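Fig. S4 source data, part A: sequence.
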Amino acid sequence: MNNLNPNGKREIIIFSVIVIALSSIICFISYKLDNPNVSILTVFAPSIVALIFTAITNGKKGLYELFVKQTVKKTGLKWLLISMVGIPVLASLAMLTSLDFDISRFDLRTTQLLPQIVVIVLIAVGEEYGWRGFLLPRLMDKFNLLYSSIILGLIWGIWHFPAYLIGTGVPLQMDFTVFLLWVILGTLFISWIYYYTKSVLTSIIVHISANAAFNYLLILPEFTGSMNTFWLFILFLSVLMIMIFYTKRTDLLNKDNNKYY
């Protein structure tokens, strides 16, 4: 996949429009049926559209590269660990900071595993082959990692907006612009790992760990009654991303360094 389709720009636009439109239709149906559970189907749109696009443009070889080569590959233990614990550690640090580091007050929102874990895994798999497996490499073919991540973060954030309008898919009691900021920062975090691993599996793991952190830790305003802890989380993640993209700027800010499979 060293030489992406020369029509990559058109693919980026068409893919993004179709995924957002499809999710909007699903959310509209969910609203009309007065059944918010229907909106969960939106999470499969990115990967399904990526599958269709890839099958049409690159056939079996493209599907193999997207769903197998970017998943079943040797990945350093360091990156797997960062993928698993990076976001939860920052979220936990935000919680501890808001509690004045009184560990005795640190508690989980819930310890229930099912069906939350199943839903969290399905969400990650349903989205990541579209966002990171399909769209990010095409953006990286045209921009450096920073710009690619910001563009992808905006697309990913806008994709959430129809669900936000019907009260699903986005944390309650949070302004959408704040959620969009988190999505962009989260995209930078995932893209940084993807840059060095070229693995959708690591992206899936980050997505799972982030959603698990939001579900089990007391960080979201709907659980805490305040935005303070979430703002601390945003602050810590912002500082981390600034440090990483500054110290690794020779790699991450240079489009010519983007390497594919």
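Fig. S4 source data, part B ends here. The chain has a mean pLDDT of 93.
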